[in-house]
Design goal:
single chain; 332 residues; alpha/beta; Rossmann fold; five-stranded parallel sheet; 17 helices; 48% helix
Length: 332
C-alpha cells in the first residue's frame, strides 16, 4: 500500500460516479477526493488530451496529484458520509465529520472553510489516493501515462439513463451551467477526435439533431476516446454501472482486487446501507440500485429512447446493453 498508487474513478456526469466514489471512500485505507479537478481545474492540459504527453506534462500532473492529496475544500473533502480510516484516530474522524458539516453550512452563506481532519496522513502511514472525476475523462490516457502506478476505472452508464438524468436535471435547474446538449464549444472539440472523425460527425450535423441525440453522441465520443487513449497502458477497467447495481458486493470485490485493495467489513456495511433503502435527492447515494439504473425506461419518452438506441448500436462500448446479460435487463 502506498500513496504513490492513485486510483482514478472517471466517468461522465450522471453516471453513478458519486456512489462508486463513496464505495471506494468506505475502504479504511483510502484518501478520497471528490472532483478536485472541478474545484481546481487542470488548466495546463487540454480537455481532450492524447495518450502521451511531454516531460513537462508528466511533471505538471505529478505536482497536481500531490496538491489533490492536500486539498481540503468543501466540495472535495466534505462529501457525506464520512468514514473512519485506519490512519486517523476516532477523534480525527469526529473532527472531519463536524468540520465537513460546518463547511457546508458556511458555503451556503458564501463563506469558504477548509475541512479539518481531511488532510492526507503523515508519510509514515500508507494510504491510497482516490480521485473521482467527471471533468477529465478526455485526459484519462495522458494521466495514466504520466502516473505509471495508477489504476483507473472508467464508469459507463446506459446512454438512455445518462440522457434521461441530464435532461431531468436541467429541467429542474440542478446545474449551474448551461444545457449540456447545447454546449457547442465542447461538441466542436469532440468533433475533432478520432471517434467523431471516422464517423464524419461535424458540428453542423450535431446542431441539426435533437438534444437527446447530441447527448447520446457526447456519450459515445467521450467514452470511446477515453477507452482508446487509456488502452495502451493496460491499467484501465471498464465498469458498467448497471452491472454494479445488479451485484454490488460481487462487482466491488472485483474492482478492489483490480486496484489492489483488500475486502473489508466497512465497505460491506456501506453497500448494504446504501442499497437497502431509498432517498429521492437528485445527488443521493442511498438508492435502490436497480430502480436507479433502469428508471429511464418510464421517464424518457419512447421516441427519445429509439433515437438514443439507434446511436448506441454504432458503438462497440454500448454493445453489452444489447446482449443477454442478466445485469442488462431489469427484472419484470
Amino acid at each position: 500500500m502506498t500513496s504513490q498508487c492513485p486510483i482514478l474513478l472517471f466517468g461522465m456526469p450522471r453516471s453513478g460516479t458519486t456512489w462508486i466514489g463513496k464505495i471506494f471512500d468506505s475502504h479504511p485505507e483510502t484518501l478520497y477526493r471528490h472532483e478536485p479537478d472541478t474545484e481546481q481545474a487542470l488548466r495546463d492540459l487540454p480537455l481532450m488530451a492524447g495518450a502521451k504527453g511531454s516531460a513537462q506534462d508528466r511533471e505538471y500532473l505529478t505536482s497536481y496529484l500531490s496538491m489533490v492529496a492536500r486539498m481540503r475544500a468543501e466540495r472535495v473533502a466534505a462529501k457525506q458520509p464520512i468514514f473512519p480510516k485506519s490512519y486517523r484516530s476516532g477523534l480525527g474522524t469526529s473532527l472531519h465529520r463536524v468540520s465537513a458539516a460546518a463547511s457546508k453550512v458556511a458555503g451556503r452563506g458564501g463563506v469558504s472553510l477548509p475541512v479539518l481532519g481531511s488532510a492526507a496522513p503523515p508519510a509514515s502511514h500508507d494510504y491510497r489516493l482516490v480521485w473521482k472525476s467527471i471533468e477529465s475523462m478526455g485526459r484519462l490516457g495522458m494521466i495514466l501515462w504520466a502516473l505509471p502506478d495508477a489504476r483507473s476505472i472508467q464508469i459507463l452508464r446506459h446512454p438512455c439513463g445518462y440522457v434521461n438524468s441530464v435532461l431531468r436535471g436541467e429541467s429542474s435547474n440542478q446545474f449551474t451551467h448551461s444545457g449540456a446538449s447545447e454546449d457547442y464549444e465542447l461538441l466542436d472539440m469532440l468533433c475533432r477526435t478520432a471517434p467523431a472523425v471516422r464517423r464524419e460527425l461535424t458540428l453542423g450535423k450535431l446542431k441539426a439533431m435533437n438534444p437527446d441525440e447530441r447527448l447520446a453522441w457526447r456519450w459515445v465520443i467521450f467514452n470511446e476516446f477515453a477507452a482508446e487513449q487509456a488502452a495502451p497502458t493496460g491499467r484501465n477497467e471498464l465498469l458498467y454501472y448497471e452491472e454494479l447495481c445488479s451485484a454490488p458486493a460481487e462487482v466491488t470485490r472485483r474492482l478492489f482486487e483490480f486496484c489492489g485493495l483488500s475486502w473489508n467489513s466497512q465497505t460491506e456495511q456501506f453497500l448494504e446501507a446504501s442499497t437497502g433503502s431509498q432517498k429521492d435527492g437528485y445527488y443521493s447515494v442511498v438508492k435502490n440500485p436497480m430502480d436507479s439504473a433502469w428508471k429511464w425506461r418510464t421517464q424518457l419518452n419512447e421516441s427519445a429512447q429509439a433515437r438514443v438506441l439507434t446511436i448506441m448500436r454504432q458503438s462497440q462500448l454500448a454493445q453489452p446493453y444489447f446482449d443477454a446479460h442478466a445485469w442488462a435487463r431489469k427484472d419484470s
